[in-house]
Amino acid sequence: MEVVIVKDAKAGGELIADGIADLLRGKPDALLGVATGSTPIPIYDALIAQVQAGGVDASRARIAQLDEYVGLPAGHPESYRSTVLRQVVEPLGLSPEAFMGPDGSAEDVLAACEAYDRALAEAGGVDLQILGIGTDGHIGFNEPCSSLASRTRIKTLTEQTRVDNARFFDNDIEQVPHHVITQGIGTILEARHLVLLATGEGKAEAVAQTVEGPVAALVPASALQLHPHATVVVDEAAASKLKLADYFRHTFANKPAWQGI
Ligand SMILES: N[C@@H]1[C@@H](O)[C@H](O)[C@@H](COP(=O)(O)O)O[C@@H]1O
């Protein structure tokens, strides 16, 4: 696992966008897995700016969603499908056909989960998966004690996650769904490169447990330790509880530029 400590969220977004641009130069139709939440927005902003400035061609990129609420009406502005279309797919100038995601309004949710897991594999697998992290260490919507081998499935949100996400629903927790579909941890680990961005002091404890704690279902993001190519990008505040922070800084400062992330 590589840990990169950056000055702030903007620098983290730019670093990761550069990594995505490198990927697209080598594989123009790369399948990019995207996360929602506030944290990855600087990544999307930086990538969109690069594309609009002609620095990289993303016209053949494909986008895959990480997770979704269950039971929101199709087209709800806070469904993750709507969010990803609005924040990533449309600004990159991609058509909805370039996008895939689980169907959170399906009548048969179990079938929708299996179908999405299959669709990801049939699309050749995710090349680079962007991840955020919940305050409790969740990735996607894999809450603590999710199986590290889990596949795309339905999960029940913790109260804490519903509280955290109420800000997207007029600060009204009653509007936050209880159930979600999420790529499983086993599914996420199949992506060829995992890139987790965490910013702010509120994520410091989860980051320390993810990077320096034991691999444990209690901290779902710790599963990144099992992946051969995982990059964790953190700002100074999110890095504040890392014991090896100086080592991570030293390693990155001395990394050959050609290596990228
Ligand atoms: N399902 C999403 C996660 O993918 C995201 O990482 C997390 C943190 O969001 P934020 O980046 O807004 O803190 O929120 C939600 O639970």
From TrEMBL:
The active site is at 67 (proton acceptor), 136 (for ring-opening step), 138 (proton acceptor), 143 (for ring-opening step). CDD domains: GlcN6P_deaminase (cd01399). Allosterically activated by N-acetylglucosamine 6-phosphate (GlcNAc6P). Pathway: Amino-sugar metabolism; N-acetylneuraminate degradation; D-fructose 6-phosphate from N-acetylneuraminate: step 5/5. InterPro entries: Glc/Gal-6P_isomerase, Glucosamine6P_isomerase, Glucosamine6P_isomerase_CS, NagB/RpiA_transferase-like. It comes from the Bacteria. PROSITE patterns: GLC_GALNAC_ISOMERASE. It catalyses: alpha-D-glucosamine 6-phosphate + H2O = beta-D-fructose 6-phosphate + NH4(+). SUPFAM superfamilies: NagB/RpiA/CoA transferase-like. Residues 10-226 form the Glucosamine/galactosamine-6-phosphate isomerase domain. Its EC number is 3.5.99.6. The record marks 146, 153, 155-156 as: Part of the allosteric site. GO terms for molecular function: glucosamine-6-phosphate deaminase activity. Keywords: Allosteric enzyme, Carbohydrate metabolism, Hydrolase. Catalyzes the reversible isomerization-deamination of glucosamine 6-phosphate (GlcN6P) to form fructose 6-phosphate (Fru6P) and ammonium ion. Belongs to the glucosamine/galactosamine-6-phosphate isomerase family. NagB subfamily. This is Glucosamine-6-phosphate deaminase. It comes from Streptomyces exfoliatus.
